[in-house]
């Protein structure tokens, strides 16, 4: 499973088309190379020489990496600088529909509710998972919910923790009943298997009293999310309590992200103590 692209295909095709009309091979090379990209040299099915050359640079873009994507946006901005005003008007409208703003200076930025800001907060360790679909779905629901629907954000934050715990157990080949397993048990099992439970004995800093104290708080964070939702503050209840504000949604999402980040980073770390204790060779 691959993390989905942060730049829609229509946007890529749009700027590839623009390159054929408003640039040259020399300029195309310059704008991409200025951002650290090189052409792949691989053949493609583009009929225009300039489009084909542009495509070769696209081949070396990781469209799931926010850092790469931000550099690509700078390439697009350079191309926009060469466009006449009437062409910029249509491009601005097109990008608006695709979730991006283009200001009067031609600078491109993702809208606040687009995929890019949310993806920038996704743990990079997601790329090491065989199937991160459940986790990605939770991030998408969170992204849609904030800041307008804090109850949905709280519910989705709880689901993010649950999805992460289940995914980790599946990655480790540990069986569990997905229908009957409760969140506290999933959290406890995932942290124990990764050597992240406060009672776990581990070498180095992982076994220090300070880290154990933090891990105890980490467990409390994850459990608190489930309790917050079950008390009626999240989605899934007939009547929502009054007084819920966006800050409560951000609190829940931030807590969930912290837990997931630590869990997934530890799962992906080839030198994490849990690997030696479980007799697992680094992947």
UniProtKB/TrEMBL annotation:
InterPro entries: Abi-like_C. Residues 184-264 form the Abortive infection protein-like C-terminal domain. This is Abortive infection C-terminus. It comes from Micromonospora citrea. The lineage of its organism: Bacteria, Bacillati, Actinomycetota, Actinomycetes, Micromonosporales.
